[in-house]
């Protein structure tokens, strides 16, 4: 069968693959659309494998809830341009819908969750890597069931929040707490969640940078404890001053609404990923020297 422009167009609309890739696939399969799709997937796997060692530190963070369950997840790409790609955003939507219906509670379980297409999430990310041209991967996920769940997705698609409350806090108040979490980036829910290692490290820094010359031992001890408590309050949600009303802490605000906050998840795209920076000038100089 002759490979016509119409055939190439049809295959491209079905697979989102590049025009030349579609032409090669059809030529390799004598114009058979179904075999060409298989050819693209097989060759796509090879392309994706070449991208497996690349650093993907951009992408999208997203939270979704049906009222009884909520999920929050991060899908990474190599550049932030991909978040404007319709195929990538369709993948995000499909992953969110599948995870919400699934019983997955961790990354390994999530990667095996089936999408409506029949592929699991891992396979869909590999295919997206091949068709979009960047490494695409599901990085992390959290899932929570509860009676009073609240989520927030920032407009830039880079920050999302999931909170699990006990009590009768209104959806508006819960949403405002979510926005606070997004803005203030607390590392822990409460002081009891802060690792002792962190406390010890901070106390060491405080001792090294605080002049206690001439202070009585008990006074010096109180100064050090006060500085440590202030530091801990800065990074724990319930002890932070509430952005909507700085006269009270988030913990007191939630308590005043007759509720308690059980769990907090805040995902920001790329946090904790070591990005590779390239010195372009040095790279060019090295190439010139090599020549």
Would you kindly provide a written description of the structure presented here, covering whatever features stand out?
There is one protein chain. With 291 residues, this protein is an alpha+beta fold. It folds into 3 domains: 5-50, Helicase, Ruva Protein, domain 3 (Orthogonal Bundle), CATH 1.10.8.10; 58-184 and 258-268, Elongation factor Ts, dimerisation domain (Tetrahydropterin Synthase, Chain A); 196-233, no CATH class. The protein is 47% helix and 20% strand. The chain has helices at residues 5-15, 19-28, 33-50, 86-101, 107-111, 121-132, 171-184, 196-209, 217-235, 250-256, 280-290; strands at 58-65, 69-77, 137-145, 148-153, 159-167, 241-242, 245-249, 259-268. The strands form 3 sheets. Strands 1-2-3 form a 3-stranded antiparallel sheet. A 3-stranded antiparallel sheet has the order 4-5-8. Strand 1 and strand 2 form a beta hairpin. Helix 3 packs across helix 6. The model has no long low-confidence stretch (mean pLDDT 86).
